[in-house]
Amino acid sequence: MISKLASRTRKKALKKIKPKSPDELSASWIQEDLLYSGKGRALFMILPTIGCSWALSEAGGCTMCSYISDSFLEPVEASEIIEIFDNIISSYEFEEKTAVKIFTSGSFLNPEEFPLEAMEHIISRLGAMENVEEIIFESRPEYINQEAVRRCCELAGDKIVEISIGLETCNEKTRMIKINKGFSNSDFEMAVNTISDLKRDFNVRSKAYILVKPILVSEKRAVEEAVSTAIYAEKVGVDRLSFCPSTVHRGTLMEDLWRNGSYRPPWIWSLIEIINRTREKVSVPAIMDTSGFGTSRGPYNCKKCNRDLKKFIIRANLDQTLVPPYECECRSRWLAELKFSETTASTDIKYSEYS
Ligand code: SF4
Ligand SMILES: [Zn+2]
Q: Where does the chain cross the membrane (predicted)?
């Protein structure tokens, strides 16, 4: 059922997109970040590919993700990817310690999405760069096997190679039925174990992405699921956690529900609750992504506190500390929503209509 809906929404969205060249689909930026060795900076790069195989399949992809709309939808030649990557790398100075985060809108380890030749060029070039400490990329669990990980690590020299997996939640019903992710906890555990086994020979790590507030999940459950997922992921053996609060992407099932008043992105208060509870219960580093904060499509509280709280969360990410106490009148509305959220599920309550 969810696959059919996701696939229908996806097909509709793909009909609307204007074709872009691989070069236009690429992007890069640099920002302060937390490395395994402490504060440093991260170079983010988006490299063009055909798109995520899961989203291109009849399964229709995940209900919150629109990356396929930013993909080339045809295979991209290795030589073209290499040229784009080389141009990005030569446009930055690498005087400080840096993590390089490669985003391919899918799985870097799937050769059908990302050509092997391009992968080998990228990892060997980064492996030879003095101030690059970490090479980070994403993959679905089904592409994480001994051979693929070993191949990357051998090229990366002494750099940390971190593989990020979109676990999203430890609740299998939520992952299968609400997110349409298409893999189980045991698939995730196998992938993390493969990475952990290779730690004997290489500097390799794993990270779990945790989605905060998938569709059809109440505000209260969203907080509880995010915290229990962090505890679960640490137990399985991941080295780092990254919470991704939902933002409403165009052309997704999440957007359809949001447009109809049946979905509201998480409150920033919920995210603070998640960070502070996670810090008490989990010892691996945990980051809360702050993109889209304060917009109607992203996490928001009220105009008075959105900006301050975003700053506090960024600080708590870099220092791995708690978010300090803060008061704003909208907090009581959030508390009320938590209390009644099992009844309202994740609907978007328009307070102005009731006052
Ligand atoms: S979240 Fe990941 S696996 Fe799911 S559709 Fe997007 S890119 Fe593919
Ligand atoms: Zn407020």
A: none
How many helices (H) and strands (E) are present in the chain, helices listed first? 13, 8
pLDDT, tens only, 257-289: 999 999 999 999 999 999 999 999 999 999 999
Alpha-carbon separation of residue 202 from 73, 120, 123, 346 (angstroms)? 34, 17, 14, 43
- Contact between 315 and 322 under an 8 Å Cβ cutoff? The reply is no
Domain extent at residue 331:
2-353
Length of the chain: 355
For residue 39, the tally of other CB atoms under 10 A from its CB is 12
What CATH number should be reported for the domain holding residue 262? 3.20.20.70
Residues 110-154 have pLDDT tens digits of: 999 999 999 999 999 999 999 999 999 999 999 999 999 999 999
Residue 60: helix, strand or coil by DSSP? coil
Stretch (H or E) spanning 336: helix 331-344
Contact between 182 and 176 (Cβ < 8 Å): yes
Give the single-character DSSP code of 180. Answer: -
Among 2, 7, 57, 65, residue to substitute to test ligand 1 (most atoms within 8 Å of Cβ): 65
Ligand 2 center–CA 80 separation, angstroms: 47
Residue with the smallest CA separation from ligand 1 atom 6 is 65
Distance (Å, whole) CA 153 – CA 146 = 10
Residue 204 has pLDDT above 60, yes or no: yes
- How big is the CA angle at 203 (ends 198 and 208), to the nearest 5 degrees? 75
pTM for this structure? 0.95
Q: Which ligand is nearest to the CA of 113?
A: 1
In short, whether 62's Cβ falls inside 6 Å of ligand 1 is yes
As a whole number of angstroms, the distance between CA 49 and CA 107 comes to 10
Domain count, the chain: 1
Return the residue whose CA atom lies nearest to atom 7 of ligand 1: 106
**Is the CB of 167 inside a 6 Å radius of any atom of ligand 1?**
no
In eight-state DSSP terms, residue 159 is: S
Ligand nearest to the CA of 328: 2
Q: Give pLDDT tens digits for 290-301.
A: 999 999 899 999
